[in-house]
């Protein structure tokens, strides 16, 4: 087993890309003050919609488009419920995740008369960038990837810089940081929250499409297998800052890719499958301990300032 090779880097990127897209959706939602834990269900729906769209249209890219549109519509419940009606987003998101798990399994039986796994002959997956094969470094890393892999990093950089450098991006951040002040300036806070949550649903649709048509060419019930929750953990780890998402997501992708390598040398599958989730828990616990320790550290402003000594009076 050799992790110091370009093939391992390619495996890390492949494993991390669905998490990158869904964590970007979560980061955008957190910027407007919506804690979105519906990423798991939205990504699962996107994976199913991409496979179903590719099967019926005969085009993988049509499947991606169908996944983006339908997952955006799928997120309307969370967007309208939390932003317009003031419902608890946690409760709505949990219901959304459970509904996605049930409806995808149900539709597999209704539409395709199968259960468990849907992998028909001739199902179109996303094309790989094989034209890069002869280029040093880029070839071993990206030749076997789909165009959605580098596009994820483009999205993260563009959106991260937009949030930091543009008036509209700063306005969006203000909605999440100080909604009362934003509302006093005439900004429609609920509209911002609703449309950003729907845009996040579209990103989760891309995440699901990459998972089911890019990483593999198959749909399996509950195939996201907790990746949406890892995306939530990544958002918490970077505190909602999009530009830092690759650091967290690539770490989780490396854990998954390393697990596959360990299976190749005889490690138990149960152990390697649990590795990304164990690392997620360890990182979140470590981050919480670090934040707690930092908050307990007295700051300079909290130190008592000694009063100047008064000169002795002479009588």
TrEMBL record:
Record-linked Pfam families: BPD_transp_2
Alphabetical UniProt keywords: Cell membrane, Membrane, Transmembrane, Transmembrane helix
Assigned GO CC terms: plasma membrane
UniProt topology in membrane: Multi-pass membrane protein
Subcellular localization(s) per the UniProt record: Cell membrane
Residue stretches spanning the membrane: 6-27, 61-83, 90-112, 137-163, 229-254, 274-291
InterPro entries in UniProt: ABC_transp_permease (IPR001851)
Entry GO MF terms: transmembrane transporter activity
Keyword Disulfide bond: no
Stated name of the protein: Nucleoside ABC transporter membrane protein
